[in-house]
Design a protein that fits this description.
The complex is a heterodimer. Chain A is an alpha/beta fold. Chain A has 12 helices and 10 strands. The longest helix of chain A has 18 residues. Helices cover 30% and strands 21% of the residues of chain B. Chain B is built from 11 helices and 12 strands. Classes of the chains: A alpha/beta, B alpha/beta. Chains A and B meet through helix 5, helix 6, helix 7, helix 9 and helix 12 of A and helix 6, helix 7, helix 8, helix 9 and helix 10 of B.
Chain lengths: 367, 337
């Protein structure tokens, strides 16, 4: 592990024991099954997958909100599994979490000042009440809210503003790593864009490392430097964002990309559509877990488990026995570009300039 | 209220469903829907697109006669297949609903009865509207389940909703809506709760069934990607009014209303350069704090004093209308930036 690595997971596994029928132990749900990855300092690392892929469980394991069944996580070179007392408190300060649902993750009976002040009390007990107030005001400004909002309660805010409160709360302890579990997926598209831009600005300004869990590939392409694709508890592909979107190697990644409806009328969707649904993680298929839905599956895929291997040596590992042959026979056709010269593009540019102009004299807030 | 143009979007001559000047009020609040016109012809998909609070779902519920609670006032004229609908009295629509017009919802789990088997629920939809035997109703249920791509339909008929996956439940919802061969299907965010690969399957299914049956479809969604894929015509709604309407090509390739432009700019793209996203600042105002005149004016980067006047839904090209005083924007703002 190099100095560049801020977080490193090896063979991370988490099984959940379901409550089964009496006298019978059900098979465990293998939510995360042997995931290894290294997060580089300062990058935005995205984990993508559908419901049931285990991405949220993985995020919680990385932050030690859940204990792994097997495997290890090291933060800044230190194993986090056994941490307790002061060391655990330091981990809680340095690694923060942003939750998906800004409606259920904020205590409705606490004012915004209390919500954001609480982590300050925990992590900086020496702070005076006045200092704490100033810091809360600073955090509110940082996330695009106003210091006056301190006395208000969560229900007085819109979804986008609540997510900003969640972000301010996460930033209060001055973390170095922030993990967001679907931080924008509950928001309307125009508000989602505000929060995506905010997270990018904060990462830049504060030198954060971000891990973002999402199911929306377009958002991920926009936010991240590297992407890991998950299917049924395992990583199937990992690489630079531009690489993954231009030349996806795993049939599942190809299918995911092809399934996204682009806002371009008259587009023919590439013929990568996959049938069926993700199998139960309590009974994952043998061999390659994707073989039941894979249009390219062969006999070997039913028996042999493919490992996540960087056999091309270009930092773009994939867990597929046949990815080279698939790429040679059926090169991936990326979706058509949006029209860059038409009236739509010109008006969007005009609109952008107008928003920038309207925002420049006084820094706007979320309202 | 401003006088509303009497013309209806689309091609009124053949329209299966026409709604004119729909207005909805809850209690004593301001109008939630203010003068919405809609028309959809057989074989056509009209997408109503908008964010939370735009009024897209309320509009569709009113058309289906599902907005019957106390304190709701519905005004406006509607015609379905040449027959006048009395939207103010939702009970009058009971005979049509589930028969000539049907609806599917976002969350199939809450729309299916958890205590009854799938087959019984679909067969009941048949027997509500058709004078057929139990056996005939079940035969029709089985047939439609096959058509919507439910595997092992005989076995599924005996299962309960909780035994099915989300995608399968949505197929059951679609089967139930289509079993009486409706002329109009209203789909309210039918794929929003689904994963993207399953969404692709369901969108293909709806398009295919529509082509086979020549159904009219009103597709309600917040996802412009889905609109581009399924719709022929689009109505962009903002805060209870139509901001812009036209063919899908007109609205996506030549957007005129600043709200439409902002929405299109805020969608991250899968290709091309990764530029900073455009945003629509702020959020939709609540009915209590709705601005006078153009309702988008509080968030519009081009807003001018004149925007305190309600803009008319003006025709800019054949069938393409936008409710903005300044469309096309480059005439007024092109060089100013």
């Amino acid at each position: 592990m190099s100095d560049d690595t801020i977080l490193s997971a090896r063979g991370l596994t988490r099984h959940f024991q379901g409550a089964g029928a009496p006298f019978r132990k059900p098979p465990p749900v293998r939510a995360v099954d042997g995931v290894s990855l290294d997060i580089r300092r300062g990058e935005t690392f995205a984990i993508v997958g559908e419901s049931g892929s285990g991405k949220s469980t993985l995020a919680r394991l990385l932050a030690r909100l859940l204990e792994p069944t097997a495997g290890s996580v090291a933060f800044e070179g230190r194993e986090i599994a056994g941490l307790s007392g002061k060391a655990l408190k330091e981990l809680r300060r340095d690694v923060q979490f942003i939750f998906q649902d800004p409606f259920s993750s904020l205590n409705p009976r606490a004012s915004v000042g209390t919500l954001i002040g609480e982590p300050l009390e925990t992590h900086f007990p020496q702070m005076s009440a006045a200092e704490r107030r100033d810091r809360v005001a600073e955090l509110l400004t940082q996330v695009g809210l106003r210091p006056e909002h301190m006395g208000r309660y969560p229900h007085e805010f819109s979804g986008g503003q609540r997510q900003r409160i969640g972000i301010a709360r996460a930033l209060a302890s001055r973390p170095t790593l922030v993990i967001g579990d679907e931080p924008v997926s509950a928001l309307d598209v125009s508000v989602q864009a505000q929060v995506v831009n905010l997270l990018a600005d904060l990462r830049e300004a504060l030198g954060l490392t971000l891990i973002v869990i999402a199911h929306d590939l377009a958002v991920i392409r926009h936010m991240s430097n590297r992407v890991a694709v998950m299917y049924l508890g395992t990583l199937v592909e990992l690489g630079d964002t531009d690489e993954i979107f231009a030349t996806p190697r795993h049939p599942y990644t190809r299918a995911l990309l092809a399934a996204i409806p682009e806002p371009v009328p008259g587009l023919d969707r590439p013929a990568e559509a996959i049938g069926g649904e993700i199998p139960s993680p309590a009974a994952p298929p043998p061999g390659c877990r994707f073989h039941t839905r894979c249009p390219y599956a062969r006999e070997r895929c039913r028996i042999d488990v493919p490992e996540l291997l960087d056999d091309a040596g270009d930092g773009h590992p994939v867990a597929c026995h046949f990815w080279r042959e698939i790429a040679a026979e059926n090169p991936f056709a990326p979706p058509a570009h949006r029209d860059e010269d038409g009236p739509a593009a010109a008006r969007i540019a005009l609109y952008r300039r107008a928003v920038a102009q309207a925002e420049s004299p006084t820094p706007t807030t979320g309202k | 209220m401003t006088p509303h143009p009497t013309n209806v979007t689309g091609t009124p001559a053949e329209a299966l469903l026409k709604v004119r000047d729909l207005r909805i009020t809850f209690g004593n609040s301001a109008e939630v829907i203010s003068g919405v016109d809609l028309a959809v012809t057989p074989g056509e998909t009209l997408a109503i697109v908008g964010e939370s609070g735009s009024g897209k779902s309320v509009t569709s519920l009113a058309v289906m006669g599902l907005l019957g609670a106390k304190g709701v006032r519905i005004e406006g004229a509607a015609e379905f297949d040449g027959q006048r609908l009395n939207l103010a009295h939702p009970d009058s629509l009971t005979g049509l609903r589930g028969d000539r017009m049907a609806m599917i919802f976002q969350e199939p789990m809450t729309s299916l009865n958890p205590a009854f088997r799938i087959g019984d629920q679909i067969a009941e939809a048949v027997r509500c509207h058709r004078d057929v035997t139990e056996a005939e109703a079940r035969a029709r249920a089985l047939d439609i389940m096959r058509k919507v791509g439910i595997s092992a339909p005989e076995r599924r008929m005996r299962q309960y909703p909780h035994e099915l996956s989300g995608g399968m439940r949505q197929r059951v919802m679609i089967a139930m809506a289509l079993v009486n061969e409706p002329a109009l299907l209203i789909a309210d965010e039918p794929t929003t709760a689904l994963d993207v690969t399953i969404q692709a399957q369901i969108l293909d299914l709806i398009s295919q069934l529509q082509r086979d049956r020549g159904m009219a479809v009103v597709f309600i969604t917040h996802d412009l990607g889905v609109v581009a894929q399924v719709a022929h015509r689009v109505a962009v709604m903002y805060a209870g009014r139509i901001a812009e309407t036209g063919t899908v090509e007109q609205v996506f390739n030549d957007p005129q209303h600043p709200y439409t432009i902002g929405l299109l700019g805020s969608i991250p793209s899968l290709t091309g350069p990764r530029t900073r996203l455009a945003t629509v600042p702020g959020s939709v105002p609540s009915p209590a704090e709705m601005p006078k005149g153009c309702r988008f004016s509080t968030r519009c980067p081009f807003a001018q004093p004149k925007c305190a006047e309600q803009p008319r839904l003006r025709e800019l090209a054949a069938g393409h209308r936008a409710a903005c005083h300044y469309a096309p924007l480059e005439l007024s703002f092109g060089t100013a930036a």
